[in-house]
From TrEMBL:
Membrane topology: Multi-pass membrane protein
Keywords: Cell membrane, Heme biosynthesis, Membrane, Transferase, Transmembrane, Transmembrane helix
Species: Prochlorococcus marinus str. MIT 9314
Family (UniProt): Belongs to the UbiA prenyltransferase family. Protoheme IX farnesyltransferase subfamily.
GO molecular function: protoheme IX farnesyltransferase activity
GO annotation, cellular component aspect: plasma membrane
EC class of the enzyme, as a word: transferase
Main location: membrane
Name under which the protein is recorded: Protoheme IX farnesyltransferase
One record GO biological process: heme O biosynthetic process
Other observations noted: Carbon 2 of the heme B porphyrin ring is defined according to the Fischer nomenclature.
Length: 325
């Protein structure tokens, strides 16, 4: 195994190292936790946080089912493509472990279950936005954009950015400006996150004619694009200080090391775009970064954050008083 393959396998574990049951594999369960985390982030940005347990469970359960359906439909559409790629040829559908009919019925069942759960336990807007996310991933990204343009993830990233809107609508019945802020943040974060992985897999994509940015424009061009989107992500993340109903000060302080590390890794990749270990590090940190943002939003809505802001204001007032006398 050469160096590039070794680095790539560390990021995308092979089926020999991490085996999932075929029925679970097609649901792409590794993608679901982050989608649910951004859903929680959308909730935390509202005045109604925390939600009641039944509504919280229905929202997250419906989101997980819809994400599983989207993953299964994606696998169905790309089955022939997956057969031609070494990395994906042993997946459940290309390898014949599951039939297309079984996967399609499972996807439809998950979609119906998600819709029923969200309509009955949350509200129509949350259900509608969840279905919009599902279809934008399958139709907009997988079918239309992915095989046609290097900007596929830029516009197709809308699918992954919808969960914050679902969270906000589940909490309030509408999507406020704060929900749209987190939507925008995820949209800006997605290209930098995905292109770091695409650098590792550019040969695979090129072999089957998928126009991912690194495969078409090369690693140097991609690293520069990652830098632009990374800086945009950092600037947008700072706006969370104002998006939060309370706790913005604590969020802003805790955000600093997350942004510092993200920019450091982006700069390292920009210096050596063909260094796969740097692409790997950025890809991994970008996942932790978005989980971290959502965690910071949740922490910022706790009593600890309220007390921190009160004490900070008292200290600031004391300093101003001393300086004015």
């Amino acid at each position: 195994m050469n160096y590039k393959s070794s680095i790539r396998d560390e990021v995308v574990p092979s089926r020999k190292r991490l085996t999932l049951p075929p029925w679970l594999e097609v649901a792409k369960p590794r993608l679901i936790p982050l989608l649910l985390a951004t859903t929680l982030g959308g909730m935390a940005l509202t005045e109604e946080w925390p939600l009641s347990s039944p509504k919280l469970i229905c929202t997250l359960g419906g989101g997980a089912l819809a994400a599983a359906a989207a993953g299964a439909l994606n696998c169905l559409w790309e089955m022939e493509l997956d057969k031609r790629m070494t990395r994906t040829s042993k997946r459940a559908l290309p390898a014949g472990k599951l039939s297309s009919e079984t996967v399609f019925l499972a996807a439809v069942s998950c979609t119906l279950a998600a819709s029923m759960l969200l309509v009955s336990g949350v509200n129509y807007l949350a259900a509608g936005l969840t279905l919009l996310g599902l279809f934008s991933y399958v139709i907009l990204y997988t079918v239309i954009l992915k095989p046609r343009t290097t900007k596929n993830i830029v516009f197709g990233g809308v699918a992954g950015a919808i969960p914050p809107l679902v969270g906000a609508s589940a909490a309030t019945g509408h999507v406020g400006l704060s929900g749209w802020w987190l939507f925008s943040l995820v949209m800006l974060w997605t290209p930098a996150h995905f292109w770091a992985l695409a650098i590792l897999l550019k040969d695979d994509y090129a072999s089957v004619g998928i126009p991912m940015l690194p495969s078409v424009k090369g690693s140097v061009f991609t690293a520069k694009a990652i830098s632009r989107y990374g800086w945009a992500t950092v600037l947008m993340s700072i706006m969370g200080v104002f998006a939060l109903p309370e706790g913005g000060l604590l969020y802003g302080i805790m955000l600093l090391p997350f942004n510092g590390r993200l920019l450091q890794l982006i700069n390292e990749l920009k210096k050596s775009p063909d260094d796969l270990s740097r692409a790997k590090s950025l890809f991994r940190w970008s996942i932790l970064y978005m989980f971290g943002i959502c965690l910071l939003l949740l922490i910022s809505r706790t009593q600890l954050s309220v007390e921190f802001e009160e004490q900070s204001m008292q200290i600031f007032s004391s300093i101003v008083f001393l300086l004015s006398n």
